[in-house]
Amino acid sequence: MSDLETALKRGVEKIYPSEEELRKVLDTDKKITLYCGYDPTAPDLHLGHAITLLKLADFQKLGHKVIFLIGDFTGMIGDPTDKSATRVKLTREQVEENAKTFKDQGGKILNFGGTNSAEVKFNSEWNDKVTFRDLIEIASHFTVQQMIERDMFDKRIKENKPISLHEFLYPLMQGYDSVAMNVDLEIGGSDQTFNMLAGRTLMKQLKGKEKFVLTLQLLEDDQGRKMSKSEGSFISLRDNPNDMYAKVMAFPDGMITKAFILCTRVEEARVEQYDQQLKSGENPINVKKILAYEVIKLLNNEHVAKEAQENFESVVQRKELPSNIPVITLSTPKSVATITNILVSANFAGSNSEARRLISQGSVSDDGEKITDFNFIPESGSIIKSGKKHIAKIVYKGEQ
């Protein structure tokens, strides 16, 4: 694929009004301005965000102007898309704290320096200035019927769940971002189609200008399950490479090919080859290791990817101990340092009940021996493991 074809086709679900119309613009010498917005409702960008970042990078490579928009205003409200209940509103201080490392995280894929640097913008710059008169004008271009036809709102109505009025306003605010920045193209996941088309409507009505919308496929397995914390497939761009590698290895097999397409820039001929190997009976773990390596390489570098792969092969596949086991020094007396308390202190479990559940499931070991007693007290220097991801050497203060 040429760079242009990659930008227009790889992972793309649909282009509004059409691919042909956007291609006509891109075939000229004109350099367009495009953006994707990222609401800091949490401090992490994740692998799903990497999909849109890669698409922005595709256009940046072609010389187009990219805006990395941080939704510090919209983030206080939160996007209602796919939400079965009203989101908890955040304070300005909370979203500002969450956004502190967004540029660094986005910079793993986008170029924020040198020629054709991506630009960072915050949508509070213009949304803080919107008056009630302005809001009425913006809202006049939409109907209540348009809003309640959205899947999640329709579902909530049928389930007699409340819909807050400010949730109706979210698409208007996201749409107004396009107007305020006077962009030519907005990029986002297919679940953002309604919000992005709201911006297309406003651009036409308020500026008499066409705004293209490019929607991307979502990272789902063959059962239609999205990448998420609940499915065990949430990968923060801030995760350390070893954890990131292990999390990719935990992907459902049905997600492998799509993840290659959406989350890497491995040549599509190679992706097709891997897909055929899977269909012909190749052990999925072999292909998944290639995927994990490529994701780590993209977000870090080849050296880091090799180290993460070697760590996985030794620690997980050959059951060896990692060379850099973290040491946790306990300040509590040994007499009360039960394994239940230690798991919570080490952040291996969020509560005593969760720690007991892990022990009951046989997920916790001391120097390789499974622990079944909630009140077991490890010796100083013991290696405690919980599941596949958590391991630490336990030392009591004064016994180092």
From TrEMBL:
Keywords: Aminoacyl-tRNA synthetase, ATP-binding, Ligase, Nucleotide-binding, Protein biosynthesis, RNA-binding. InterPro entries: aa-tRNA-synth_I_CS, aa-tRNA-synth_Ic, Rossmann-like_a/b/a_fold, S4_RNA-bd_sf, SYY-like_C, Tyr-tRNA-ligase, Tyr-tRNA-ligase_bac-type. One of its GO terms (molecular function) is ATP binding. GO terms for biological process: tyrosyl-tRNA aminoacylation. One of its GO terms (cellular component) is cytosol. It catalyses: tRNA(Tyr) + L-tyrosine + ATP = L-tyrosyl-tRNA(Tyr) + AMP + diphosphate + H(+). Residues 323-377 form the Tyrosine--tRNA ligase SYY-like C-terminal domain. Its EC number is 6.1.1.1. Pfam families: SYY_C-terminal, tRNA-synt_1b. NCBIfam families: tyrS. Belongs to the class-I aminoacyl-tRNA synthetase family. This is Tyrosine--tRNA ligase. It comes from Candidatus Woykebacteria bacterium RIFCSPHIGHO2_02_FULL_43_16b.
